[in-house]
Amino acid sequence: MLWKEIAGVSVTAVIIGLVELAKRAGLNPRYGGHLAWFLGLVIVMGYGILAETGHNLVELFLIGSALGLSAAGLYSVGRVHYQNYQRKKRG
């Protein structure tokens, strides 16, 4: 069970990195959360189907959604804290 938790954290970090790359390539930041959710679904469902993990599509959908939305939330929290830091630094 532990390896799944570790893999989930790693996938979340990968999703955050991919969203940041997409934004630097020109993606409107407004769509970062949507992209994170989509990437979570694609990564988990792709791995689940190709590796034949034994999970059904509903489980893969829920796991992918959880990881993608977790990544979106982590990114948003980091962005808000950074913006607050910048405001305090200026003012």
Question: How would you portray this structure in words?
Answer:
- There is one protein chain.
- This protein is mainly alpha-helical.
- It has one domain.
- Helix content is 84%, strand content 0%.
- The chain starts with a helix and ends with a helix.
- The mean pLDDT is 84.
Task: Provide key terms for this protein.
91 residues, mainly alpha, elongated, 0% strand, 3 helices
Give the secondary structure arrangement, pairings included.
Elements: H1 2-24, H2 32-50, H3 57-90
Helix pairs in contact: 1-2, 1-3, 2-3
In short:
This protein is mostly helical and 91 residues long. Helices cover 84% and strands 0% of the residues.
Radius of gyration: 15 Å
Described by strand count, sense and barrel closure, the largest sheet is: none
Beta fraction: under 5%
The counted number of beta strands is: 0
Report the span from N to C terminus.
Answer: 48 Å
Helix content: over 70%
Domain tally: 1
* Shape verdict: elongated
Helical stretch tally: 3
Order of helices and strands: HHH
pLDDT under 50 segments (min length 5)?
Answer: none
Give the helix/strand class.
Answer: mainly alpha
**Average predicted local confidence, pLDDT:** 84
